[in-house]
């Protein structure tokens, strides 16, 4: 992959409009995107700038690293060791069981996640101080300001903005031996989206990818075998139509959310990948009007007819998932959190890999993945990489396996003989993480504008009878005018 060469001015512009985090309105307790700001420290206030806490690990002296919070595992802001007792007291007061034995269900997941991390780092004389810079656009803006001021935490975290940071040379590549260990032992979904020019720049300890879910009750009412997985795009379109006809306005076939935002791009991006299409090429230039993309958008058009008018492209993804949770649509492409959410909403759901197009192959897009990276200007890089090593350690990955909300990324845990038997749905998710998995691309210039051109074109394709190829040709021209200025 070739590097994208732009001036420092354009770097600033690119980062300012980087993609906001997504895929999180419906991913349960383990969603990074559920994080709400607790302490919106500015980069200038970052504890990573404190000389007293920046000690060379080669001396063997204590080191304190600063890590940005991830909502899925956050327990507060401050010195990690000082947060455990108050968090335990808080959880006990709510009746939450704070005990955990590996191999058994876990209730206080974030607490034990951070305890394991802290314990492993203590062995190396490293302690952790957490900061909360929020999530989504506020996080991106603060990270961007931190990069420009060369004042950043030792570990930053984010979702769709992170590959762009790597491409702009703002992140430290993982050490070669660490990268080799990850490639051999860790699921590609955890690191492949953060690979650039042969180097790895980030890791997610519990990423999500999408699968197909269906409401067995609605499917059965349409005369379809609720136990039989769908394997082809045509079957998905046909079944969605049958359910819609059987529902007579009370329920619909559904399929996938396709709103003009990152929630939509992430979810139907898996269909684009399956069909051999893409949003952008290796140089960050749009590839909107490829034959593969035209075929995929035509499928989306068919599925749109199996929804209430406007629901599939609603600007607010929560509206779409409310319909699913209320049993109003039968099919859904979404992340692994739906396994638990189906149970919570008393829906009997089936789960299978996403169906394939006639000439397609399995592919997916990470969703709800909180990638952790070490900035180029971090003051404690060695210690920061020790933190990331702890994230894919056997202890942390066993904890994730026991939570049964995300699947572990460590092959040793996920491929153990009893894992498939104890966690069949999460094992299916693990298998989906091991194929062709990518993140959303970063365009060469003005990400937000280019993505909006694409989103508007898809909405127009779904909501009108216009020729899809012509609509995407027009979108391609508009996008090129932005990226090639």
TrEMBL record:
PROSITE patterns: PROKAR_LIPOPROTEIN (PS51257). Residues 1-23 form the signal peptide. InterPro entries: SBP. The keyword Ribonucleoprotein does not apply. Residues 29-63 are annotated as: Disordered. Keywords: Signal, Transport. It comes from the Bacteria. Residues 29-59 have a biased composition (Low complexity). PANTHER family: MALTOSE-BINDING PERIPLASMIC PROTEIN, MALTOSE_MALTODEXTRIN-BINDING PERIPLASMIC PROTEIN. Belongs to the bacterial solute-binding protein 1 family. This is ABC transporter substrate-binding protein.
């Amino acid at each position: 992959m070739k590097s994208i060469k732009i001036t420092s001015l354009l770097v600033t512009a690119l980062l300012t409009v980087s993609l906001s985090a997504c895929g999180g309105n419906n991913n349960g307790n383990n969603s990074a995107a559920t994080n709400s700001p607790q302490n919106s420290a500015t980069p200038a206030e970052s504890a990573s700038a404190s000389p007293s806490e920046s000690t060379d690990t080669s001396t063997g002296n204590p080191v304190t690293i600063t890590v940005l919070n991830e909502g899925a595992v956050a327990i507060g802001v401050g010195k990690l060791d000082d947060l455990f007792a108050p968090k335990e007291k808080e959880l006990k007061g709510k009746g939450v069981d704070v005990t955990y034995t590996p191999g058994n269900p876990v209730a206080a997941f974030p607490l034990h996640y951070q305890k394991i991390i802290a314990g492993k780092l203590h062995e190396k004389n490293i302690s952790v101080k957490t900061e909360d810079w929020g999530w989504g656009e506020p996080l991106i803006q603060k990270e961007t300001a931190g990069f420009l001021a060369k004042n950043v935490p030792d570990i930053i975290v984010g979702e769709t903005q992170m590959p762009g940071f790597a491409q702009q040379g703002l992140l430290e590549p993982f050490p070669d031996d660490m990268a080799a260990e990850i490639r051999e032992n860790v699921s590609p979904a955890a690191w492949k989206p953060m690979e650039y020019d042969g180097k790895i720049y980030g890791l997610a300890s519990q990423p999500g990818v999408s699968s197909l879910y269906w409401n067995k009750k609605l499917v059965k009412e349409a005369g379809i075998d609720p136990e039989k997985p769908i394997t082809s795009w045509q079957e998905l379109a046909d079944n969605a139509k049958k359910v819609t006809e059987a529902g007579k306005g009370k329920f619909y076939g559904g399929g996938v959310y396709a709103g003009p935002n990152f929630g939509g791009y992430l979810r139907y991006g898996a269909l684009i990948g399956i069909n051999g299409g893409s949003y952008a090429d290796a140089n960050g230039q749009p590839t909107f009007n490829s034959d593969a993309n035209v075929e995929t958008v035509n499928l989306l058009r068919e599925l749109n007819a199996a929804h209430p008018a406007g629901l599939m492209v609603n600007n607010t993804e929560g509206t779409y998932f409310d319909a699913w949770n209320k049993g109003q649509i039968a099919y859904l492409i979404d992340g692994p959190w739906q396994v638990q959410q189906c149970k919570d909403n008393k829906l009997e759901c089936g789960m299978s890999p996403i169906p394939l197009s006639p000439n397609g192959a399995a592919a997916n897009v990470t969703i709800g993945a909180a990638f952790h990276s070490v900035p180029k200007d971090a003051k404690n890089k060695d210690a920061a990489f020790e933190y990331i090593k702890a994230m894919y350690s056997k202890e942390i990955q066993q904890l994730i396996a026991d939570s049964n909300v995300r699947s572990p990324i460590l092959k040793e845990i996920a491929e153990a003989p009893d894992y498939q038997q104890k966690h069949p749905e999460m094992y299916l998710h693990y298998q989906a993480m091991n194929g062709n998995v990518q993140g959303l691309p970063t365009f060469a210039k003005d990400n937000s504008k280019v993505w909006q051109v694409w989103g508007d074109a898809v909405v127009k394709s779904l909501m009108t009878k216009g020729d899809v190829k012509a609509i995407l040709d027009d979108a391609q021209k508009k996008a090129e005018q932005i990226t090639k200025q």
